[in-house]
Specification:
The chain is of the alpha+beta class. It contains five helices and twelve strands.
């Protein structure tokens, strides 16, 4: 397997995986979404809440707050020595206390562990007016996206690398350049009296077949079943690198488990 990074940002990356098949590509996608654990508030204990929102609504909002995650310091509850009863190795408390006219933001949560905190502190939770107050404790635990979407670390998508072939005997038609919806990337270019493929922009092809229809089949658009373009976007709990490495670790563990069972 080979990896070629196309674009990498703090919360988004795009790369090409080579010499793999569709099965491996989809396995990697599913592992990242479903099996890579992250921290999320799972239980909310209310001491006071006379805001306009019911406890259940605020608890739902708390659960959906992305939290920075330290995979080295915490265990999944069912893998912890406490056997899921709750200890400092598998959960952390985040306390919130607010009163009076204000909008309560995620930044109001005070965590016992500075490494576990809201990724987006300006996320609004509830608006208080007058003498309304809100006092609660959120208990954050490690979990997996397959159990609840709040634990999913991000979005992952992939598609085949396009292959465009042009019949050398075909008399190029300028209108076949115009039908491409990705005009800004100039996937097809005209050189002299011929239309050629711009290989540097080939990955932007969506394989819509517009140019194929325009050319009466002189242009062939297919997908390479050994090259896949991946787009990975993090919700902020983990870095793209951590998501990928953890997904591969999970795959190794699952394969070892299967081998042991066999």
């Amino acid at each position: 397997m080979e990896l070629e990074i196309i674009k990498q940002e703090n919360d988004k990356a795009q790369f090409i995986l080579k010499n793999i098949d569709n099965t491996y590509a989809n396995t990697l996608r599913r592992l990242i979404i479903d099996e890579v654990p992250t921290m999320a508030i799972d239980v909310v204990e209310f001491e006071a809440n006379n805001s306009a929102l019911y406890d259940e609504i605020i608890a739902l909002r708390m659960g959906l707050l992305p939290l920075t995650t330290d995979l080295k310091s915490y265990n999944l509850p069912d893998e912890c020595k406490c056997k899921g009863e709750g200890c400092a190795r598998c959960q952390v408390d985040l306390k919130l206390s607010a009163k009076g006219d204000q909008t309560v933001y995620a930044s109001a949560l005070k965590s016992k562990d500075p490494a576990i905190k809201p990724v987006y502190p300006k996320t609004p939770i509830v608006k208080l007016i007058g003498e309304q107050d809100l006092v609660l404790t959120g208990i954050a635990k490690l979990g997996k996206g397959k159990d609840h979407a709040k634990w999913s670390p991000g979005h992952v998508s992939y598609r085949q690398m396009p292959i465009i072939e042009i019949d050398k005997k075909w008399e190029a038609q300028d209108e076949c350049l115009e039908v491409c919806p990705k005009k800004e990337f100039k996937i097809l270019e005209k050189k002299g009296n011929k239309i050629v493929v711009n290989n540097d922009k080939l990955m932007y092809c969506t394989m819509c077949d517009a140019c194929k229809s325009c050319s009466n089949g002189a242009i062939s658009v297919t997908g390479d079943d050994k090259k896949y373009i991946f787009t990975v976007e993090s919700f902020g709990q983990l870095s793209i690198k951590d998501m990928m490495v953890k997904a591969l670790d999970v795959l190794d563990t699952q394969c070892d488990e299967l081998q042991a069972l066999l």
